[in-house]
Amino acid sequence: MSHASPTSSSLGRTAGPSPGPSLRHRLPRLSSLGPVIALLLACTFFSFQSDRFLSVENFSLVLQQVMVVGTIAIGQTLVILTAGIDLSCGMVMALGGIVMTKLATAAGLDPYLAIACGMLVCVAFGLLNGLLVTRVRLPAFIVTLGTMNIAFAITQLYSNAQTVTDLPSPLTWFGGTVSMGGVEINYGTVLMLGLYALMWWVLRDTRPGRHVYAVGNNPEATRLTGISTDRVLLGVYMVAGVFYGIAALLSVARTSVGDPNAGQTENLDAITAVVLGGTSLFGGRGLLLGTLLGALIVGVFRNGLTLMGVSSVYQVLITGVLVILAVATDELSRKKG
């Protein structure tokens, strides 16, 4: 009969009103606070180094500078949450931008249709990546390394390695600004923030979002529950392609040209933003808003170092150190968990 009696410890837990979660459990996890702390420390440091850093206009400039990488990083986050990686994102974005601008200028296509064609090219590369990963069972690293080079070659051949200029206004509209509280905010920045809000909700509150996390956590267990892991992965790579297409449009709008040499560092910048934002490279763990913070950290560091007159070579060096530290922290926390 003793097995039917509650233990004294369980009696202590069930008697009276529930005390609720402890303060320790109500507080955010340190891993989720890491990007916030890093961003605050960076802002504090650079505020002492330059009087211009804390100006509202400078923060608006930082947001404008990170809007392209930040948008790419949304798609990269989805891929990394499934324990994959996409090295082709930057060059796919560049190809999408060249397709948009060439069709709208040289081919005389309606600008909106040209934008749609450029985005379809990006989605097609996402589909190709997804099929090679799910059907041929190739590692995502190898697949996207190959498609990165393919996208680069097509971009150079299609553009003749020439910058496309004299763009119609629909392709440059997102480069305009709107006044908010006396501060000029780029339309592209508003779009990027809106995309983050949308995808944060999708990942947190929808079934497809939960499936993305489940595949990253344990694909075999997810498959045994009846979820098609291949369909989830294919969808992730295609949706990532959509964001690369949007980033292509933002890049064109920001520079007012179609640049065949764009996208050569955006892949690493996007991965850096995702990792700095706390998303695990092993999949299944991370927050999209953390990616936004990661992109801002990269932007703040480069902006602050520029204001300090530090050479761009050292900016790349510091970014590399940051991403190594972030990955090392992720590995240590995973082992501890």
Fold and architecture overview:
- By secondary structure, the protein is mainly α.
- The chain has a domain at about 55-265.
- Helices cover about 70% and strands about 0% of the residues.
- The protein contains 15 helices and 2 strands.
- It has helices spanning about 10-15, 25, 30-50, 55-80, 90-105, 110-135, 140-160, 170, 185-205, 205-215, 220-225, 230-255, 265-275, 290-305, 310-335; strands at about 175-180, 185.
- Strands 1-2 form a two-stranded antiparallel ribbon.
- A hairpin with a 2-residue loop joins strand 1 and strand 2 (about 185).
- The chain is globular, with a radius of gyration of 22 Å.
- It starts with 7 loop residues before the first helix and ends with a helix.
- The model is unreliable at about 1-20 and about 25-30 (pLDDT under 50).
Main sheet overview:
2 strands, antiparallel
Distance between the termini: 38 Å
Q: Which strand order spans the largest sheet, edge to edge or round the barrel?
A: 1-2
Indicate the overall shape.
globular
Task: Report the structural category.
Answer: mainly alpha
Low-confidence stretches: 1-18, 23-28
**Oligomeric state of the chains?**
single chain
Mean pLDDT: 88
Percent helix among the residues? over 70%
- Succession of helices and strands: HHHHHHHHEEHHHHHHH
Rg, rounded, reads 22 Å
Beta-sheet strand percentage?
A: under 5%
Q: Tally of extended strands? A: 2
The count of helical stretches stands at 15
